[in-house]
Every structure is written in C-alpha cells, then in structure tokens.
Amino acid sequence: MADLIAEIAQWRQSLHRVPELLYDLPITSNFVLERLKGFGVDTISTGIGGSGIVATIRGSTGGGKSIALRADMDALPILEATGLDYASHHHGRMHACGHDGHTAMLLGAARQLAVKRDFAGTAVLLFQPAEEGGAGAKAMIDDGVLDRFYIDEVYGLHNMPGLAAGSFGLHDGAIMASSDIFALRLKGKGGHAAAPHLAQDIVLAGASLVQSLQQVVARNVDPIVAAVLSVTCFQAGSAENILPSEALLKGTVRAFDEQTRAKIQLRLSEVAQATAKAHNIEIDVDYIRQYPATVNTPDNVALVSSVAEDLVGKQNVDRRTPAQLASEDFAYFLQKRPGAFFFLGNGNSAPLHSPDYDFNDQIIAIGVEFWCRLIRAAT
Which residues contact 250 (CB under 8 A, 6 or more apart)? Predict the structure, then answer.
C-alpha cells in the first residue's frame, strides 16, 4: 500500500505541473483516462458535460446501489508562488484549490476498487470539469449523467486548510452557500466638478448606494441566519474636475437557503431603484444567480461520519464543522440526488485560492481508503 500511495502522490504532483482551466482539460483528461484504462474498470465514458469522464466498477457480490464519487479536475488563473520543484509549468495557472489531489485520490480509489471489488452494487467515479466558476456539475447533469449511470447517491469531498490533516468536517443541511453576482449601472448627467448643481452626481449616488446595500442583510435577514452581500467593485470617473455620467458597482451575494437568497435579491433591486430615484438618476440592475447552496442529506452525512470515525477515530470527525459562505457546484448534484459533501483536513497549509497553497500529500492515504470504505458501506 505504501508504494501505491507514493505513486498516487506522484500522479498528484504531475497534475500539479500542468494545471488547466474550466472545460479545456486535454492533458488532465488524458492523464485520468490512461490510468483508468490500466486499472481494468468496467466502463469509461468521455465527453460527459464537455470534458468530464465517468468510470464504473461493478462489485463482486451483486445487487446494491449505484454510488457516485466526484473529483473536480480544473485549476485556477493564479500565478503560483510556491517555488516547489513540481510547480506549475503553465504560467498564470495553478492548482490552488487542491483539485489535483482530489483527482489523484479518486484515481487511487478506482485502482483499489477495480482490483478488490469487495462491495455490492456499482461505484460510479465522476471526474468533473469546470468547478471553478463553470458549473461543470450542472453540465454533466444536463448531459444525463445521473440517469445514464442510474446513480442513487452522490458524494464529494474537498480538502480544507486549517482543519487538522486527515480529519473530517461535516455538516447536516447546508454546508456551502449559494453564490450570486450583481452589476448596477448608474447613469445621469455629467458635468464640471465646480458646478455640481448643473449635473447629477453619480459618484455621490454610488457611494450612497454602497452604504444602503450594507443594510440589506443587516436589517432584512434574521440575525441568526448567515448571509453576505459584498460590493466589490466601484468604477467611476476619469479626472479630478469632472463629474462622470456613469458608474458601475459589482458584487456578490451568499446565502444558505432559497428564501433568504430570494429576499436579498428582491431587496437589493428595491434599494437600488429607490436610491436612484432619490438622486434623480437612472439605474440598470443585473442580478445573476450562479451556484445554489450545497445542502447535505442528514442520513448520508451520518453514513460519511460513521465510515470516517471507523477510519480515523471519532475524535477526528466533526459533524458540526462550520458551514462555509464560499460556494461549490456539487450543489447541483445534491439538488437531484441524496448525498453529502464534506471536508478532509489539509493541515496547516496556505488557504485555498492562495498563490502559496499546496495540497498535502500526507492525506492521500486517508482519502483513498475512505472512498473505498464508503463504497463498501453505501452499496
């Protein structure tokens, strides 16, 4: 087993050298495909959801469920700063979220499951593109992956810096937030800064709107319910003595349930329109819903917890780990099938999406063994 883990770590580092973005994953997909062919899995399907790969492995005891395990394959447009000898060879691209580790661990599990087949039912291994903003999970679902492979339940894990290496973090219900974006375009009459009474002050209106939007969550959402509205971009003007005629505000909204999400969307639009009216300007509101909240099924969380406790000990499994206001497109799978999304501790590493981040190869053995045990327990 030690030799296998060392080999999987080499796979992970090889993938780390060649990060690819969204659906454009020719090197990564080929790497996964060639290894799956060598493992003797039962079926391999490519091009699912664009560049996704699905492998199936049938257990030797017959019957049972069809259980899906997901690994994301894409990287981020970040310039790596780790200085590692296996650092990215693709300038401006980096595996800064650990998808190289997720993919390598699922490949390791595929190899073990194909050899032993000591389970009932079928293991369905989903190698997914475009988690980082491309909704690759939805693309695979739209391509029929859940029905085509008769998937009963679906599971996904994500490494988590700051969580003790090899420990597990779980949460019943929503574990990751929904993710929406908005753009507010303010339009009015520009003019000379020395004569503001002859113009409409778009900058002042924008500043007022930024402050007013901060009250949307604070005064419209139950204080016990977590949600975030952040204005992250304010573009206006080009000179010190000119009042501009246009401004652009952008930002993001995060919530854990659809009711809160809808309330924030409505109030954002109402506040924007009311602020524009108060300043006698025009405004265009563009609100785009992206990933929904990632909502776990309690029974499946209980199964994950039981398997993890048997593997690493009850003291290393936290079923009340805090939910994250970041988002995850695994949410789309959980809208369609029961399952669970959970965290595997990466130890004291740099945070996700940091140019200094690296996946901790010391947790590979736990990840591989966990996936194999989960298949045995779930099927």
Answer: 181, 182, 183, 184, 231, 232, 233
Sequential DSSP letters for 197-247? GGS--HHHHHHHHHHHHHHHHHHHS-TTS-EEEEEEEEEE-SSTTEE-SEE
**Helical packing angle, 364-378 and 99-116, nearest 10°:** 50
Instruction: Tell which phi-psi region holds residue 32, choosing left (phi > 0), alpha (psi between -120 and 50) or beta.
Output: alpha
Q: CB count, 10 Å around CB of 278? A: 12
Q: Is the pTM higher than 0.90?
A: yes
Which amino acid would we find at residue 26?
A: P
3-state secondary structure (DSSP) of residue 291:
coil
> Helices in the chain by DSSP H: which ranges?
2-17, 26-39, 99-116, 136-142, 145-148, 202-220, 258-278, 298-312, 331-336, 364-378
Q: What is the DSSP string of 87-121?
A: --SSTT-B--SSHHHHHHHHHHHHHHHHHH--SSS
Distance in angstroms (rounded) separating the CA atoms of residues 305 and 314: 8
Query: Tell me: the pLDDT tens digits for 322-338?
Result: 999 999 999 999 999 99
Interior/surface letters 366-378, b for 16+ CB within 10 angstroms, e for the rest: bbbbbbbbbbbeb
- According to DSSP, the residues that pair with 72 across neighbouring strands are 128
Q: At what angle do helices 99-116 and 26-39 cross, to 10 degrees?
A: 20
Q: What is the pLDDT of residues 268-299, one digit of tens each?
A: 999 999 999 999 999 999 999 999 999 999 99
* Pair 205, 234: CB distance under 8 Å: no
